[in-house]
Amino acid sequence: MGCMSPTSAHSRRRAFTLTELVVALSVSGVIFGAIFSAYLFMGRNLTRLVNFQEQEVQSRRALRRFTEDVSAAISLTTATASDLAIVKRVSTTNPSMPGVVTIRYQYSPYLCTLTRTDETLREEKILSGIRNLDVTYYNQSGTAITASLQSVKSVELAFSTAAGSRAAGTLASYATVSSRIVLRNKAALE
To answer: Are 62 and 126 in contact (CB under 8 A)?
Structure first.
């Protein structure tokens, strides 16, 4: 019987068996897979949250701008369902002669945008990613009208937007309905 050298006995105690190595690699793979999945899940949720927050901010700005323009309007005209012209008074240095400007809102279902063009013909995209946009007109008694915009006394704007990708799991949708915006400067019909 041979006797073991101290170096071979020492190396046997420090080595892993193949079974131990396979078990350790399997457990490590499961742990790293779970960490990676959690990272992807959190990244998608964060992206979806950012998309939702951007839509909310964009919607609030668009509603504020639209409300300012409509509430100061003296008349509304529309050439098509996707085009609204708002004629409004603006303050001037001469109070006996108020200025009048026309602001145009145009909805493009192909580009999914709502743009605002002011009196200097400066075009500003105020909404993007629009899935649906409806403008409802009401007369003095609060009845919805579609025929003549001459009798419009208030307007309601409803839209829904979306940003992100359904396939990537980052799609966020946002829907908004404004309160009825009264044309304050429009004279009552007699």
So the answer is: yes
CA distance 15 to 73: 85
Comparing 31-45, 76-90, 176-190, which segment has the lowest mean pLDDT? 76-90
Q: Provide long-range contacts, Cβ within 8 A and 24+ apart, for 123-126.
A: 126/58, 126/61, 126/62, 126/65, 126/66
Count how many Cα atoms sit within 13 Å of the Cα of residue 17 in the half-sphere of its side chain.
3
Does the model's pTM come out above 0.70?
yes
Q: Contact 86/68 with Cβ under 8 angstroms? A: no
Least Cα distance to 133 among 102, 169, 100, 157 occurs for 157
If phi > 0 it is left, if psi is from -120 to 50 it is alpha, else beta; for residue 112 that is: left
- Where in 9-153 does DSSP place strands (E)? 73-77, 83-90, 99-108, 113-117, 123-128, 130-138, 144-145
Closest C-alpha among 90, 89, 126 to residue 105: 126
Mean pLDDT computed over every residue of the chain: 84
